[in-house]
Design a protein that fits this description.
- By secondary structure, the protein is an alpha+beta fold.
- The protein has helices at about 30-40, 40-55, 60-90, 125-130, 155-170, 190-200, 200-230, 235-245, 325-335, 400-405, 430-450, 455-465, and strands at about 5, 90-95, 100-105, 110-115, 120-125, 135-140, 150-155, 185, 250-255, 255-260, 265-270, 275-285, 295-300, 320-325, 350, 365-370, 375-380, 380-390, 395-400, 410-415, 425-430, 490.
- The strands form four sheets. An eight-stranded antiparallel beta sheet has the order 1-8-9-10-11-5-6-7, with helices on both faces. A seven-stranded antiparallel beta sheet has the order 14-13-12-18-17-16-15.
- A hairpin with a 7-residue loop joins strand 12 (about 275-285) and strand 13.
- Helix 1 (about 30-40) runs antiparallel to helix 3 (about 60-90), helix 2 (about 40-55) crosses helix 7 (about 200-230) and helix 6 runs antiparallel to helix 8.
Length: about 500
């Protein structure tokens, strides 16, 4: 992995190819209906072959013509419906600087996203749109329920420019300013990524399951059954999915956060704002220890681990680094949690009697804290470190099961936003667990009283001399407009 200075990215004020209407609204790219109508072709082709193999139908000229005609009719229907959606889909920025989106064919759906509550704005390029130079912009704000909008599709230049403008508007600064430069921090070699995926017990388990499924399916259904099995997906494909998802993974630093780029079949560009990171987790499988490798995961406000949309699987886990040596991982995390040295915080191990409850991992169980973060450690086969800043603590609780109660033990939990990282001090002395919970609640209250981390981008632009917009000064967190729901998305 290397770190080198890159040239600043050129910035283009958002100028979509389609002209705005009299109200200043704009449409997505005119090719969108055709791309959406073609996306189901690969699955339909494989499914048709599987059905023919199962039914024993030979590929004669008549069958081929019928298949082509069916595909053409279904495609025309799909493109026609997508065209109606395209005609009714508009987006624009209102006078308050918020993003408005109109959509719907049979019923009109109007949405208003408060950019003052912006959580993430990402640019994605699925395979088929990528082939024609199009990209999707995904915008998510804080709020309950469905608080995100997908704009499909724009040209890649338009998508990047729109992303930049949304970030600038959310900070309350001029959106015609140049995009902040970035510095490349780390890049994951494809060879290391592949080896890391193979050196996991999970991959071995998926391989065994795949072999068993193939044997059972062939024994009961013959070769035709194997075709259906391939169409439905086999467990080992999960390893390739992860390789494709994190291929060419790079981490770059900029004033608007850490910028992540990755993807083989689908290119993804994400930004991880420091002020939105709720918790950080380190995962180290047993076979990675000789290489001193670790994976770094995140809980990000407003982006839960189960968020998936548009068939996208890259959001099933928020990953800061899919694999990296410990020193590199700690250096990258230091950019998200500045001033925190995780190796210099003394551990408080679990009591020895915890071995009766967790006889494999009891030696690994420990907690630690300093003035900024609280850390838990656990796992013997797969070791995990989970870190939460005091200021991001959502709640603190203590649980005690019957087995723990008989041993005088309890577990102390520090709740974060939904995600892969879960902060739990397992099997502590019951009295100590309650004391730790109370102390952590006090530390969290004190940290929130002095927190200014959510103003990170506004301080940067103000420091660079960029004039803020009058509606949202850079040193003040913009207030939501009146009449907007607390979730940050206004449904009209």
């Amino acid at each position: 992995m290397s770190g080198q200075q890159q040239d600043p990215l050129s910035f283009e004020v958002f100028k979509p190819g389609s002209a705005p209407d009299e109200h200043g609204r704009r449409r997505v790219h005119k090719w969108t209906p055709f791309v959406q109508g073609l996306q189901w072709w690969p699955g339909a082709l494989v499914g048709g072959v599987a059905i023919m193999a199962q039914s024993g139908v030979s590929l004669s000229q008549g069958v081929l013509l019928i298949g082509i005609a069916a595909v053409a009719v279904i495609t025309l229907v799909g493109v026609g419906f997508a065209y109606l959606e395209w005609q009714r889909r508009w987006f624009w920025f209102d006078d308050d600087g918020d993003l408005r989106v109109d959509s719907g064919v049979l019923s009109l759906n109007r949405r208003r996203l408060q950019l003052s509550r912006l959580q993430s704005v990402d640019v994605l390029q699925p395979l088929i749109p990528r082939l024609v130079g199009l990209a999707e912009v995904r915008v998510e704000v804080a709020g309950a329920g469905d608080s995100k909008v997908n704009l499909q599709y724009l040209t890649l230049a338009e998508a990047n420019a729109l992303r930049n403008e949304i970030i600038a508007r959310s900070a309350g600064v001029r959106h015609d300013a140049e995009e902040a430069p970035e510095n490349l921090l780390a890049q994951v070699p494809p060879g290391d990524l592949l080896v890391s995926l193979l050196l996991r017990a999970e991959t071995f388990g998926l391989l065994v399951m795949t072999v068993v499924l193939f044997v059972v399916t062939f024994w009961n259904a013959g070769p035709a059954g194997l075709v259906f099995l391939l169409v439905g997906g086999v467990p080992i494909f999960g390893t390739f999915t992860q390789f494709s998802r994190y291929y060419d993974f790079t981490v770059a630093e900029s004033p608007d956060g850490l910028r992540l780029r990755h993807g083989l079949l689908q290119k993804t560009r994400q930004t991880v704002p420091p002020g939105r990171v709720q918790a950080v987790g380190f995962v180290q499988p047993f076979l990675w220890r000789r290489r001193d490798w670790v994976r770094v995961r995140l809980n990000v406000a407003g982006v839960s681990s189960h968020n998936q949309g548009s068939g996208d699987q890259s959001y099933s886990e928020n990953v800061l680094l899919p694999v990296a040596p410990w020193p590199v991982a700690l250096a990258i995390v230091a950019r998200v949690l500045p001033g925190v040295d995780l190796t210099d915080i003394p551990w408080q191990p679990a009591p020895e009697r915890s071995r009766k409850r967790a006889w494999i991992q009891w030696r690994q169980l420990a907690v630690a804290w300093d003035d900024t973060v609280f850390i838990t450690r656990g796992g013997r086969i797969v070791e995990r470190w989970d870190v939460v800043p005091h200021v991001r603590t959502q709640s603190v609780r203590v649980t005690q099961g019957p087995w723990q109660r008989s041993l005088g033990l309890a577990s102390m939990h520090v709740d974060s936003t939904p995600g892969a990282v879960r902060i739990t001090g397992h099997h502590r002395d019951a009295v100590e667990a309650r004391r730790l919970a109370q102390e952590q609640a006090d530390r969290a209250a004190a940290a929130r009283a002095s927190d200014t981390s959510l103003r990170w981008i506004g301080r940067h632009y103000a420091g660079e001399g960029v004039a803020p917009e009058q509606a949202a000064p850079s040193d003040v967190v913009p207030q939501p407009p009146e009449g907007t729901e607390p979730g940050g998305v206004e449904q009209l």
